[in-house]
Amino acid sequence: MPATRHLPTSESEDLIALTREIAAKELAPRVDDAERTGAFPREVFATLGRAGLLTLPYPEEFGGGGQPYEIYLQVLEEIGAAWASVGVGVSVHALSCFPLFAYGTDEQRARWLPDMLSGERLGAYCLSEAHAGSDPAAMRAKAVRDGDSYVLNGAKAWTTHGGKADFYTVMARTSAEKSRGISCFHVPAGTPGLEFDAPEDKMGLMGSTTATVRLVDARVPADHLIGHEGQGLSIALAGLDAGRLGIAAVATGLAQGALDTAVAYAKEREAFGKAIIDHQGLAFVLADMAAAVESSRATYLAAARLKDADRPYGREASIAKLVATDNAMKVTTDAVQVLGGAGYTRDFPVERFMREAKVMQIFEGTNQIQRLVISRHLAR
Ligand SMILES: Cc1cc2nc3c(=O)[nH]c(=O)nc-3n(C[C@H](O)[C@H](O)[C@H](O)COP(=O)(O)OP(=O)(O)OC[C@H]3O[C@@H](n4cnc5c(N)ncnc54)[C@H](O)[C@@H]3O)c2cc1C
């Protein structure tokens, strides 16, 4: 049963209806195969771009959807419920557009943003390095000014859409100052010296390609610097606050998908002469799953409304990411339990949901890092 939503306008109701239609027609028929083979669904992002669903939170004047986060995240949740890899991809694309949108010059925005926001050009976000994940200020990738260019060298690990994207939003060091020595660059695919390792062999999210991006004397014109030198880490962290809300929404969708599968199965499957949902011990598991999904949704929506009201929301974004992804891990694990032996097979999607939920607790700041952010707010 799809989530019950209390949407503020008929336009937002239409957006959710459109998303459900595209999820049923375009995502559901492809997801199983792509997740088994690891095929990257580039055409799905083009479809979402054409439908106006890829960049909903950006203003219409630049080609975005002009929607508040409260609506964008619910659309993202619906996409995540149908296909987590695509939900993550939409969220990462929105994240990779953020620095240019928020810190770019008018000229840079006019040049690049329309294609990025229409979905013509898919983005990737390169912050992490092999030795600098939770602590990005430890990054070593360098950008050295050389005349009218910057020359970039280093390796950005774990890049979602690495090798598949059309542009890379890259953080690299322009000075030795730890957190104030990092800058942000727009690096188009096809830049000589932009190279990619083979995709990571992951336990889930196979439809989302993850690869190390190598910068080998990769030269970009000086006007590809976004913001000013030294501003890169604060740009990256500002983007992550919003990105964490995206991951919270995708995780909530994943949990909703697991709940729906478990409830449908529990109504059909019989044991001891009645449907297993009529055994209170099992029905209570389902009730806890439903309560967790609703709590996740309420938590990310509360943070989204703060953001939409231009109020500080970093602490609430971390809480939403922590709550929604821990809930997704619990709900998807319980869904496997509800399906019994069948849940442990690939005949049903719940084992995949469980594998996909795990990474939600890891990327865009592990849940330990979310606790660090929340506890620092408490200590202020
Ligand atoms: C599938 C996938 C896609 C990704 N996509 C991207 C992407 O598109 N762009 C990008 O830049 N990055 C991406 N990442 C990287 C991701 O953000 C990092 O993996 C994550 O931030 C954790 O960094 P790490 O793996 O280096 O773990 P580490 O930082 O080495 O952490 C290891 C463990 O130590 C814990 N830990 C570390 N520091 C502390 C502390 N201070 N207190 C308590 N515990 C701590 C962590 O929580 C974790 O449990 C992706 C990762 C994955 C798996």
Would you give an account of this structure?
- The protein is of the alpha+beta class and 380 residues long.
- The chain has three domains: 10-116, Butyryl-Coa Dehydrogenase, subunit A, domain 1, CATH 1.10.540.10; 123-231, Butyryl-CoA Dehydrogenase, subunit A, domain 2, CATH 2.40.110; 234-379, Butyryl-CoA Dehydrogenase, subunit A, domain 3 (Up-down Bundle).
- 52% of the residues lie in helices and 15% in strands.
- The protein contains ten helices and ten strands.
- It has helices at residues 10-37, 42-50, 69-82, 84-103, 106-118, 232-268, 280-308, 314-338, 350-360, 367-379; strands spanning 123-126, 142-146, 149-160, 167-173, 182-188, 194-196, 210-221, 225-226, 270-271, 274-275.
- The strands form three sheets. A four-stranded mixed sheet has the order 1-4-5-8.
- Strand 2 (142-146) and strand 3 (149-160) form a beta hairpin.
- Helix 6 packs parallel to helix 8, helix 7 (280-308) runs antiparallel to helix 8 and helix 8 packs antiparallel against helix 9.
- The chain is globular.
- The chain starts with 9 loop residues before the first helix and ends with a helix.
- Bound molecules: flavin-adenine dinucleotide.
- The site of flavin-adenine dinucleotide has 22 residues, from strand 1, strand 3 and helix 10.
